[in-house]
Amino acid sequence: MAVKQTPLIAQYLSVKQRVPDAILFFRLGDFYEMFFEDAELGARVLDIQLTSRSKDGVPLCGVPYHAAEAYIAKLVKAGHKVAICEQSAPASGAGALARGNSRTLMTRQIVRVITPGTVGEQTVLVASEKNYLAAIVRDEADEYAPDIQAARQHPHPRGETPRRPLPEGEGKIGGEAPGGPLSEVGGKTSGEGYAIAAIDVSTGEFIAARLANRRLLIEELLRIAPREIVILANDPELKVSLEDMAAPITVLEPGEYPAEAARGAISARFGAAAAAELEAPLCRASAAALGYLERNFGRDLAHLAPPAVYRAAEYMMVDETTRRHLELVASSDGARPGSLLSILDETATAAGARALANWIVYPLLAPDAIADRHDAIAELFDADLGGQVADALKRIGDLERLGGRIGAMRASPRDCLHLARALDAAVRLREWMRERASALIGELAARIAPDPALAAQIDATLCDEPPLNARDGNLIRAGFNPEADELRGLSSGAREVLARLETSERERTGIASLKVRYNNVFGYYIEVTRTHLGRVPDDYERKQTLAGAERFTTPALKELERKILSAESGLKELELQLFTRLLRDLQAHSAAILTAARAIGEFDALASLAKVARRRGYVRPAMNSSRAIRIRDGRHPVLEAGMRAGEFVPNDLDADPDTRQLLLITGPNMAGKSTYLRQVALIVIMAHMGGFVPATEASIGIVDRVMTRIGARDELRRGESTFMVEMSETARLLGGLTDRSLLLLDEVGRGTSTFDGLAIAWAVAEYLHDSARAKVLFATHFHELTDLARERPRVKNLSMAVREWGGEVLFLRRVIEEPASRSYGIEVARIAGLPDSIIARAREILSNLEQGELDEAGGVRLAHDRRAQRPAPQLNLFTSVESRVIDELLALDVDRLTPVEALGALAAMRARLKKSGG
């Protein structure tokens, strides 16, 4: 049905054409109105009433303009863009305009488009998380050669402390690139690479990197976790690949930012030197991100740092699947509790929380940078981090995002007062930090250097309790500006005159109840009740009639009203100008404020790691250039935190690609295999992020990547079964491994039939031993795989100790150097509560399976149907049970066995010999 276009609707549709992908908040008087499809979508998301214009039936809903921020936040969090369209001319009859009756429309224009990646409002942002806008361009260069020099000039752009100048070859371990061979980090053929740039407008952070292929691009984007993505490429396949990231995607024309225009845009914003450091693909990606941000957020962005180039290969590779399996920053249900981050995060500031989360996602590879953090934590371990330090951090708060609002000219008067308090506290914290011996803490202290005059300037300009909105007035301190003091005096003096006028009019008229009052609609008036209307003087002019009173004005009251309103409006305008001038002065210092804020955030993260280490008994790991990992009494940091002291059973690890490369871990469910795998990975990651680890001793050679295949899940939306997901993830893990990699595999092959699964697991294990030298922890239920230790020299058998006692199975949670004899699946099923009849039948079937008993039809013969007892040895792929038992006896380390472990080992051997007829 065609809608009759009134002038107002025609204006709305004209504005809407400029932002077709955004929900338009169209200002009408005291409301932001939404029309047509925007109204239907807005009403559904915001859970507000959908109505329609009575004249033309156009769908309509709206929100009060003074409370719009909460509604905008809800829409943006739901992934929508919101365009703010404001009135830009004085109203002549705002009420009539709001009703759509005005003959002359007010001019309107879009003042800002709020998108998930360009939002700066605190109500939308998550305090502990970064909020990136990412831009992607195709890298058409024939050769993949990251700009190493640019990376050297901006070391550690991931929000970390700058390193000392790096000589050529620094950051390598034994002459090798820390991120693995270039074929993995690069591996690019012509036209397959990508450049990305990411901006967090709330903090001014601006980073850029080149990735060799689409797989590495997706992994890096998953690590950055942008809230919004801009693609500067005609690449439909890439857009499809990104749709699973749950971030809105905007596709720009591929030619929108040609190389020279992009370089010019970066040069105009950051200077020619910053532009010269960027290779053409990085420059185009950076210009695309910057241009999109300026179009939507505005151009007043003095706090943005120049694009800082980094190489993903400078950090340990921990892909998204591994982060999910290990629950690094979120637990399996997507929530923060239950993750490693939730255990390590005792930060006092939001900037510290964001820095700590970043460290977990980007573990370091450079030994000197890791050692700097370890040194700092070692000193803070014994320091008093309460009292002065805790109080200073609390007063500082989220200085980083406050600095972002200052730089974008969006700070409120109360923000400025908070800045003054934060800067004072930062100076006190800096003095405490300067007394520490750690080189890293000293470097952080040196970065806390804002102008000490800023706090004094703020205190001199603003009163003690200013309003939240500068336009409300009453924010400039008395005595700061003579003109403001004069207008304030005139305004307050006129009010005193008003009080005297009320007294004199009561005396003149003899009406004791006479009142002189003011409201926003009628201004100043004299109100007389109906019982006293006979006493009203002739010079009173009727202004309004009420049910029980009349309102009047006089020539004297009109003149007084003019003086008061002129003084009040003049004072508000002047105060707004003075506040804007203060903001401009503060904006000029936004870079120094943000530098200090990031340094404080890093210190807060270090302090948090030190506090957790001290309370939970973590130790400093010994990092070295070897390829071995040795852990004594390692513990799972998350599980241990939920147990009573001493309840968690610790375990050792000895892995070395030269002698103990592939560790086969057998044992029943519930015995702790997956826990053991996860705790090893978490300890390695904690060590590389610069933290202490839950163990009594740890010696860790630099690990370039940690990869896992743990747990079972499906991807039905993609048409992938649990087994398909398992095989896809396993295939992903087998590429690009080095002798510095750590690979954790749990139950490979369990998603299919027994023999298929065993065959796959066996082949994968052989491949990992023969074709790669990565350190592998291979947990499996297929205890037949333990025979690999006879065939391959670097395969070692471990198992989870189990003891059978009085018909019960006891899980000792201890890793021992011997293979498991069986899987104990039926015992676990019994513990889980399966009916006794099912357990009994399962045991009968298992007994016949183990003895190879089949009936005439080829089915398993149950125990009560046996016609003959033909004892047969248990199926073994390569060797006899007796010889395996002898080997196990010879391999026992009797000097280290506890009595319980010895009994368990003997019981397992005896059971195997009995089954084999020995």
Structure characterization notes:
The chain starts with 6 loop residues before the first helix and ends with a helix. Helices cover 43% and strands 16% of the residues. With 918 residues, the chain is an alpha/beta fold. Helix 17 runs antiparallel to helix 23 (590-616). The protein has 32 helices and 26 strands. It has a six-stranded mixed sheet with strand order 3-4-2-1-5-6, sandwiched between helices. The longest helix is centred in the middle third of the chain and has 33 residues, at 555-587.
Shape: elongated
> What is the makeup of the main sheet?
6 strands, mixed
CATH superfamily of the largest domain: P-loop containing nucleotide triphosphate hydrolases
- Number of domain modules: 5
Q: Tell me what portion of residues adopts beta-strand conformation.
A: 15-25%
Mean pLDDT comes to 84
- CATH structural architecture of the largest domain: 3-Layer(aba) Sandwich
Number of strands: 26
